[in-house]
Amino acid sequence: MEFNCPGCQKPLAVEGQHAHCESCQRDFSLEARCPECHKPLQVLKACGAVDYFCQNGHGLISRKRVEWTPVGH
Ligand SMILES: [Zn+2]
Ligand SMILES: [Zn+2]
Questions:
Q1: How far, in Å, from the CA of 72 to the mean position of ligand 2?
Q2: What domains are there in the chain, each with its CATH number?
Q3: CA of 30 to the centre of ligand 1 (A)
Q4: Which ligand is nearest to the CA of 42?
Q5: CB 10 within 8 Å of CB 20
Q6: Confidence class of residue 47 from pLDDT cuts 50, 70 and 90?
Q7: pLDDT band at 73 (very low <50, low <70, confident <90, very high)
Q8: Cα(20) to centroid(ligand 1), Å
Q9: Is the dihedral of CA 29, 34, 40, 45 positive or negative?
Q10: C-alpha 68 to ligand 2 mean position (Å)
Q11: Is the dihedral of CA 26, 52, 33, 41 positive or negative?
Q12: What is the pLDDT of residue 46?
């Protein structure tokens, strides 16, 4: 996955669920968003697996379809 900084559009250094912009010195969290409505997804953890659920009527979203968005702190 590659993300650009929302501030300066430079590529972010991604580590797990976190991203960092070298030039702005800002940290971001990668938030799971629905690919249909772009709203944050509810994270459901069950039996070691993680599912993502859209509360706006799009139901379960498979990990592959999740739209990851860098969110500043
Ligand atoms: Zn930046
Ligand atoms: Zn949705």
A1: 21
A2: 13-72 (2.10.290.10)
A3: 15
A4: 2
A5: no
A6: confident
A7: confident
A8: 8
A9: negative
A10: 13
A11: negative
A12: 84
The rounded Å distance from CA 69 to ligand 2 centre is 14
Mean pLDDT of 21-47: 95
- Nearest ligand to the CA atom of 27: 1
The C-alpha atoms of residue 12 and residue 47 are separated, in whole angstroms, by 32
State the burial class of residue 3 (Cβ atoms within 10 Å of its Cβ: 0-12, 13-18, 19+).
Answer: middle
Q: Tell me what the pLDDT averaged over the chain comes to.
A: 94
Opening angle at CA 60, ends 56 and 62, nearest 5: 130
Mean pLDDT of 55-60: 97
How far is ligand 1, taken at its centre, from the CA of residue 71, in Å? 12
CB 20 within 8 A of CB 27: yes
Confidence of residue 1 (pLDDT cuts 50, 70, 90): confident
